[in-house]
């Protein structure tokens, strides 16, 4: 749609062929939107209305002072060494205790494995640990946890369909009448709310009893001590605030990383030379680490935080994969006042605007740039390194060949998931 236009900007019509918004991938325009004229382009009522039941007044769903306060709180915590270490430890533990044992069993069974599903469950387990501080193995049948996971997935799916509805009145009427998918959405939100509130209340009791056995490492524990920064009307107001901000971070970490890894492995499986160069780099870094620490050979291969920094080729390959298949492919804003973009495009107040970001669209840009960028790379590099060290990934559809890149199997929702899953066979390497 954008490639034939000289400025990479087009006016998007609605189903009546009337101007509905502007779509741009022009880096100069995007910098203007996300940074230079940041205050004029907001999430706005459309975004808030669609996602309000799920995200409430959380950081990804609000503007103005509500966003500023939450951004300040989250920025402080994401810049602490203790949270970085906690996330790194969580990922390392998850790979060692859940991911690699599961893949090993799948490899021995010599049956196709849906790698997209495996990665989704793995990253969801990790984000629940980081957000709530709870251990969850989604390969086990823990009823409460699985109900929450299924409710969350369903809520995200239905919220995504609201965005693509040609007539917002359609889903709004279904919501009012509580019928069809909107009835299922309401039920899913109820499950999410109960699950989140029970954890929050449980953690409050621990604090009241001065329970010293838990370190304030997860996000919920950190945000519980907000009274000095944010004033609340009462306990229910504070719990709602905590619920919204935590659910936002779960949404941010749940599918974005697994989606990025899915497309990465799909591309790698069709480019054995790149896979071999990554494997060579892995072996070089692993050998250097073993010699430096004089440690015995590990039962499972998981690199530490400092070792991951030396995986430059893997970092570049992941970045290129995300350029081709950005996990969050569309960003949107409403114009507060009329404006003119740097390429001369006139923007009317209230116009809905989907767009990419700057030269590299993956981690947003400007004041709303992704706080979890570094931690996302930690998780992606850890997972990719551990899997590629042990296995060759054989995609049953042949992977991301030049021919398949002409029509890749994606489905558009809040994230760019692979349609129909990603069935693979895992071929164990001989070391």
Automatic annotation (TrEMBL):
Any GO BP annotation: lipid metabolic process
Domain of life: Eukaryota
Entry keywords, A to Z: Heme, Iron, Metal-binding, Monooxygenase, Oxidoreductase
Cofactor: heme
InterPro entries referenced in this protein's UniProt entry, alphabetically: Cyt_P450, Cyt_P450_CS, Cyt_P450_E_grp-I, Cyt_P450_sf
Binding annotation for heme: 370
Pfam family, one: p450
Matching CDD domains: CYP86A
Keyword Heme among UniProt keywords: yes
GO molecular function, one term: oxidoreductase activity, acting on paired donors, with incorporation or reduction of molecular oxygen
Family classification: Belongs to the cytochrome P450 family.
Name of the featured protein: Cytochrome P450
Species this chain originates from: Quillaja saponaria
């Amino acid at each position: 749609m954008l490639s034939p236009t000289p400025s990479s900007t087009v006016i998007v019509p609605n189903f009546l062929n009337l101007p509905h918004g502007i779509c741009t991938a022009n880096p100069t325009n995007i910098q203007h939107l996300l940074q230079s004229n940041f205050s004029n382009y907001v999430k706005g009522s459309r975004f808030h209305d669609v996602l309000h039941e799920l995200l409430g007044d959380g950081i990804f769903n609000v503007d103005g002072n509500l966003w500023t306060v939450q951004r300040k709180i989250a920025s402080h915590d994401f810049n602490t060494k203790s949270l970085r270490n906690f996330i790194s430890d969580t990922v390392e533990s998850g790979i060692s205790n859940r991911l690699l044992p599961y893949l090993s069993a799948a490899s021995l069974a010599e049956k196709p494995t849906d790698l997209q599903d495996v990665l989704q469950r793995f990253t969801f387990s990790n984000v629940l640990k980081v957000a709530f501080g709870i251990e969850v193995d989604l390969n086990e049948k823990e009823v409460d946890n699985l109900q929450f996971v299924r409710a969350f997935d369903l809520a995200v799916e239905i919220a995504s369909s609201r965005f693509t509805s040609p007539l917002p009145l359609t889903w709004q009427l279904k919501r009012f009448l509580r019928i069809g998918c909107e009835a299922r959405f309401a039920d899913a939100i109820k499950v999410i709310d109960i699950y989140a509130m029970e954890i929050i209340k449980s953690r409050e009791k621990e604090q009241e009893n001065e329970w010293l056995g838990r370190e304030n490492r997860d996000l919920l524990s950190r945000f519980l001590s907000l009274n000095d920064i944010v004033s609340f009307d009462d306990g229910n107001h504070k719990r709602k605030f905590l619920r919204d901000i935590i659910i936002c971070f779960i949404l941010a970490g749940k599918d974005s990383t697994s989606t990025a890894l899915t497309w990465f492995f799909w591309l790698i499986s069709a480019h054995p030379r790149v896979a071999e160069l990554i494997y060579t780099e892995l072996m070089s870094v692993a050998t250097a680490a073993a010699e430096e620490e004089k440690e015995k050979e590990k039962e499972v291969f998981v690199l530490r935080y400092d070792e991951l920094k030396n995986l430059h080729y893997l970092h570049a390959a992941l970045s290129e994969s995300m350029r081709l298949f950005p996990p969050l492919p569309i960003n949107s804003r409403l114009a507060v006042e009329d404006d003119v973009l740097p390429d001369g495009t006139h923007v009317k107040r209230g116009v809905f605007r989907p767009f990419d970001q700057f030269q590299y669209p993956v981690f947003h840009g400007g004041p709303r740039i992704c706080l979890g960028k570094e931690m996302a790379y930690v998780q992606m590099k850890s997972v990719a390194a551990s899997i590629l060290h042990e296995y060759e990934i054989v995609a049953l559809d042949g992977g991301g060949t030049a021919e398949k890149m002409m029509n890749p199997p994606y489905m558009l929702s809040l994230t760019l998931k692979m349609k129909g899953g990603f069935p693979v066979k895992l071929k164990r390497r001989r070391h």
